[in-house]
Design goal:
Blueprint (H helix, E strand, L loop, with lengths): L9 H7 L4 H5 L12 H8 L3 H12 L6 H5 L3 H32 L9 H35 L15 H18 L6 H41 L1
Helix pairs in contact: 6-7, 6-9, 7-8, 8-9
Bound molecules: fe (ii) ion (2 copies).
């Protein structure tokens, strides 16, 4: 298992796992400073290097999850990271999936429109995902911010209300990916089809990581805060 440290250079990180680039972007780091160690970059842009390392190592190694270490970071840092991830999904990943699906449908040489079922399934999935993100952005995260700032939140709301939601969204994306793998016929452009599938696979991986941070880090932190405030 490779663990990145403050001495790792951006170039090594990207060569090892280029999927980490969008994760770095969420911290305001892009390809510019290739040979600078992560520690120096973080110091120059006032990013907590320990938090960044915990996030990228968690993302890179599926089995690496320093739960206690992550829970020790401020929930504000975690909220900020999660919100940037939402923006990445909404502004980049979903439009990309739609663009590829559209191109794929247009490449159909059979005239049978077999992808309509997949499109329908995707649109239903997207609706549920957007609803979920909206709830986090409009209800859950503001509730956590008010707990942090004022030491009190909406008295009628507790984080328990929100807890059980992620599995549904993960399963639906998993099903969508499986539909593409199992049922798509060779009447579409192979390259577009592969790219569509790869985009879904990467999104699935990113989303599982995202939900894991919400479920295993953020929610326990909020439960602890609620216990401290309400006794
Ligand atoms: Fe989220
Ligand atoms: Fe979530």
């Amino acid at each position: 298992m490779q663990i990145f440290t403050k001495n790792t250079q951006v170039i090594d990180l990207v060569e090892t796992n280029y999927h980490l680039l969008p994760v770095l972007n969420r911290f305001g780091i892009s390809l510019g400073n290739r040979e600078m160690p992560l520690g120096e970059i973080c110091a120059s842009i006032h990013v907590d290097i320990h938090f960044l390392l915990a996030i990228i190592n968690t993302y890179h190694n599926e089995d690496y999850f320093p739960e206690k270490e992550l829970q020790a970071f401020s929930p504000t840092l975690i909220l900020d990271y999660l919100q940037k991830t939402h923006v990445y999904y909404l502004e980049y990943v979903l439009p990309k999936i739609e663009q590829l699906l559209d191109l794929l449908m247009k490449s159909d040489t059979s005239g049978k429109h077999q992808l309509e079922l997949i499109e329908k399934f995707y649109l239903q999935y997207k609706k549920e995902l957007l609803q979920h993100i909206r709830e986090e952005e409009e209800v859950v995260f503001p509730y956590i911010s008010s707990l942090l700032q004022e030491g009190s939140g909406n008295a009628t709301y507790t984080i328990h209300t929100f807890e059980k939601e992620h599995s549904n969204i993960d399963i639906k994306l998993h099903d969508l990916k499986n539909m593409v793998i199992k049922y798509i016929e060779p009447v579409y452009d192979n390259n577009i089809c592969n790219e569509f599938l790869i985009t879904l696979l990467r999104f699935e991986r990113d989303l599982v990581d995202h939900a894991r941070i919400e479920d295993k880090i953020l929610i326990p932190q909020v439960l602890q805060l609620e216990r401290e405030i309400h006794g």
